[in-house]
Amino acid sequence: MDALRAAVPACLLWGFVLSGCVRSVPSAREAGGGEEIALWEDRRSLAGGRLVELAAKGSVPVRVRALRALARIQEPSTVEAVLAGLGAAEVPVRDEAAFAAGVLALSWEPLTDAEKARMTEALLAAEGSEKDEGVRRTLLESLGKLATPGAVKRLTERFSEGNPEVAGRVAVALGVAARRGASLAEVPLERAAVLLQSGQPEASRFGGAYLLASAKRFEGLGMLRRCLGDEAPDVRALCAKGLGDVGGPEDAAVVGRLLGDEVPRVAAEASRALAKLASRCSGDCTPLDELRALTSQVGRVARGDSAAGHALLALAQQGLPEAGRPVLVALRRALQEATPGAASEVASGDLMNLDCRLAAALDRQTGALDEAPRCGGGWVRAVRRLSLGLREVAQSKGRGGASSAVQYLSYPDTRVRLAALDAVASRPVPEAAGPVRALLEGEDLVEAAAAASTAGKLKDAEALPLVRALAERVPGEPDMAGPVAEGLVALAGKDAEPVLRKWLEHPHANVRRVAAESLSGLTGQPVRAAHVESPDNARRPEPAPVGSTLTFRTNKGDFTVALDAEAPLTSGNLVALARGGYFRGITFHRVVPDFVAQGGDPRGDGEGGPGYSIRCEITRRPYGRAVLGMALSGKDTGGSQFFFTYSPQPHLDGRYTAFGEVTRGMEVVDRLLEGDTIQEVEVSP
Predict the structure, then answer these.
(1) d(CA 237, CA 264)
(2) What is 563-613 written as a DSSP string?
(3) How much is the pTM?
(4) Quick one: which of 9, 19, 90, 654 has the fewest CB in 10 Å?
(5) Integer Cα distance of 301 and 548 in angstroms
């Protein structure tokens, strides 16, 4: 599952046009300038070469707008047109071309080796001759996104020679490259020590910490230990994260001090790091001793400080080795004992939701659903208890298969059945084949598609006709494509090729991507889908009025978000949903401390959407703290799921549409835990 996955909805979900789905699109003659380009962009149209022409000549604003459109369309055949902009005489054009190159480097449809080599060559040449510092900064960021050996080599050179301010930005670019799989073995990490000095700007110190945390090299241990005391919470959190990856049990005492940090995301990273350190213990385990201090956070949650629960949530999500079972049991006991005297019903609910999270972590240790069904003291619904436990069982490294999950494949609620499918798929057992086949014929198409993938993992040949039948429905149900393709390839092998080749020309970008990836695996040769414009009936939201804000009213309080004019359709989509009452009663189904809080799914399990998809509108807004982003599961798959960042996340820049920022009430977002409810979203003006 992608880190920020949303369901893949589409306008033609049931083979006919949904109400409000069709919008008249003016022809090129009826529109002019930027409006004309915006329409082509929305249609994912190259306008017979006109868009590429406008990126190459015309006024500066038109060229810049055309390059932004090419970045958003992400058609690999336009790489040369984007790279040509790097040589423009005008600074804004070169800067936009550099940004567009970075977005193309992150394309959901991977570039070929030849395209990466050409892009590397062009970016290196442009960076080597660029005189404008702003453009040069964009070029360096794009080299990090490209993450080729040549790109990393140039970034390493600039990291070694630049002043601390430049080196800090390059350090972030190197960290992004590492997140994309690049080796940083040749990067001189000792340079990060200069960036981390107390007199340096916070941005430089953040860059040094981000590089160390991303590089995961033992040479950085000393610097990571020292920067745990940095005055900036984002730096402290990164250093704790880095120690969790490369440190040893001997680092537990210094990391443990951060469990009491006044900033919740720092305490959460310390908790997560200690859990990682505990997995490397043999014999006595100091990290486990330190984690017992989390009982103090239980008291804070009981008094109404929900944000203190992030450290407990981070521990539960990370999990502990079997030696840590007494710690999880002790924390559960503390939660249960604190609940009767909690300051409010909200606090009691928080305590018991965390109890279920820890119970599920215990079930992950054994690989059997045992503790989660009995957690929550009556405060947590059975559907949530079972779903949590089954999804943790799916992650278990315990012995044997997931036999205990089979009975839940026939549970009345689809969220539980989906979680049971996860468990069975991760640890297949023969007795699951029959119940999985039954789900292939169910009315819930998300569930049927997941069952197709699971049938493939079970190697159930009897399920093949049912999987083939689902594959025939994919053209009208694009959100099924990924899991159905997995099942079809697993069961039909080469015989799946004709069906997948038909998908290569589907109007939905994500169906084409799935087909290309599946065929590449089947044939052993890279396969690329044709460029296809969006159909006339693709949904096009009304743009949000400039200056629009959304006020989220939740059970934890209210917060306000200012929407970006740079992403008018994405913003307009959320405005329209809010005005229609769509978000009323929907939960934040996913909260990952020090990363994101994600909501907007009417199903509540991460698989739902509004029944249509919108196109991506990548903006230049970086993912700092408190940024609003659109959750995706592939190109142009946005719908109703969104997320808020708890801390800077540079690796999301240029890949997920950033379209707003929390301007009031971020402390409320900090208090969110899984299951918290949106009561209303109000639009202004």
Answers:
(1) 10
(2) EPTTSHHHHHHHHHHHHTTTTTT-B--EEETTTEEEE--SSSSS---SS--
(3) 0.94
(4) 19
(5) 34
